DNA sequence: ACATGTGAAGCGCTTCACAGCG
DNA sequence: CGCTGTGAAGCGCTTCACATGT
């Protein structure tokens, strides 16, 4: 089901006039097999029209519903180095229904800075802020050494989903979903493919 | 083989004195099954010692060799918005043997800016720069609408691996490896899990 | 005794191929 | 006639379990 956001992105990239799309065309756009597309979409009870294809607008709505994108999600970011600041300013989040409701950093010199009109708060303010503002997702953009402590703090505060950009593996309870995005890992995988063809 | 960078990261995170590690311990650290670790490591002819475990330093060397991390890789970044600038400044790249050899942007106002001591050049300079500086990897941090054009330009210039942060699906020839990192997609997947438990 | 390395079984995802429907 | 929806086959990854080696 990790492909649904990909499909959504493909639908967004379609020419403005397109109101119908076949599984074949969507598959080509997404770079996957068309049977896979049909199976994925059938899982959401998506009734396309046989002989015609899928209604783009309806499909978009169904995917958004399945992903729980119909309501806004409150997000906090911990660690306002270059990456944290870039994410705080990233329009793509707000455009897709993710509201940033808090920025936190352990460095006293950064407290009080404003990034994207939001004030940076100290770590001590995190637990209360998460509860009061209903934050469900935490983004970690700290150095590796701070990542585990921050993850635990987020989990304790009630955050149930963590997106970890720190180059460290973090461990939390089973009730918290963690996704790891490591920039160096991505380059290393590319390096592997380059190396393979040498 | 996408797990090798993860293992490498776990090895980096180990306490300083640790010179031996069992598949069980490494698996726990990485959050995977221990049989998987052994199978992965056996694929690189990694001879651990039965009854003892793996030599951490030797293992690290073997993984780095397998990933082709023994030589530096030259990287160019296209698109110097917030994210591009954050990546240009990201120490993790240089620490792991990836050298940034060029920064490019289509916006004339950004040309000549320096980011991390590197000057931003216009898109027209890309083809020659990639060839002269031996760039093998291109990072795309442009808006979605520019991503395809930039990807094609990179491929034409001779780049064989692309890391795409733009929220768009790009299409290139089979001789170019593309990895997609979409920040919104990550949040959408987390949203799905949140939604699932509601 | 203990941990690796690995056949073999298991499992889920992917792909095929076609029946069913518009 | 065209495209969806889906059983069934295929395929690769994961996991088990144990023989092997130190």
The percent range for strand residues of chain A is: 15-25%
Class based on secondary structure composition and strand pairing of chain A: alpha/beta
Radius of gyration of chain A: 20 Å
Main β-sheet, spatial strand arrangement of chain A? 5-6-4-3-7-8-9
Mean pLDDT figure of chain A: 97
Please summarize the sheet with the most strands of chain A.
Answer: 7 strands, mixed
The string of secondary-structure elements of chain A, in order, is HEHHEHEHHEEEHEHEEH
Question: Care to describe what's here?
Answer:
2 copies of one chain form a homodimer. Chain A is an alpha/beta fold. Helix content of chain A is 43%, strand content 20%. Chain A has a 7-stranded mixed β-sheet with strand order 5-6-4-3-7-8-9. A two-stranded antiparallel sheet of chain A has the order 1-2. In chain A, strand 7, helix 8 and strand 8 form a beta-alpha-beta unit. In chain A, helix 1 packs antiparallel against helix 4, helix 2 crosses helix 3 and helix 7 packs across helix 8. The longest helix of chain A is centred in the C-terminal third of the chain and has 14 residues. Chain A starts with a helix and ends with a helix. The mean pLDDT of chain A is 97. Chains A and B meet through helix 1, helix 5, helix 6, strand 8 and helix 9 of A and helix 1, helix 5, helix 6, strand 8 and helix 9 of B. The structure holds a DNA duplex (22 and 22 nucleotides).
């Amino acid at each position: 089901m990790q492909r649904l956001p990909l499909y959504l992105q493909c639908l967004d990239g379609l020419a403005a006039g397109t109101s119908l799309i076949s599984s074949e065309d969507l598959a080509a756009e997404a770079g996957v097999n068309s049977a896979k597309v049909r199976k994925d979409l059938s899982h959401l009870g998506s009734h396309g029209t046989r002989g015609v294809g899928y209604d783009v607008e309806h499909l978009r709505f169904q995917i958004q519903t399945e992903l729980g994108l119909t309501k806004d999600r409150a997000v906090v970011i911990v660690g306002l180095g270059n990456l944290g600041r870039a994410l705080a300013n990233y329009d793509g989040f707000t455009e897709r229904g993710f509201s940033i409701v808090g920025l936190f950093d352990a460095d006293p010199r950064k407290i009080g800075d404003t990034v994207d009109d939001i004030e940076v708060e100290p770590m001590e303010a995190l637990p209360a802020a998460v509860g009061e503002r209903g934050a469900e997702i935490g983004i970690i953009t700290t150095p590796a050494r701070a990542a585990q402590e921050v993850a635990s703090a987020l989990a304790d505060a009630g955050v149930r989903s963590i997106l970890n950009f720190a180059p460290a593996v973090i461990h939390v309870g089973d009730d918290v979903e963690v996704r790891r995005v490591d920039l160096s890992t991505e380059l290393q995988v590319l390096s592997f493919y380059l190396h393979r063809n040498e």
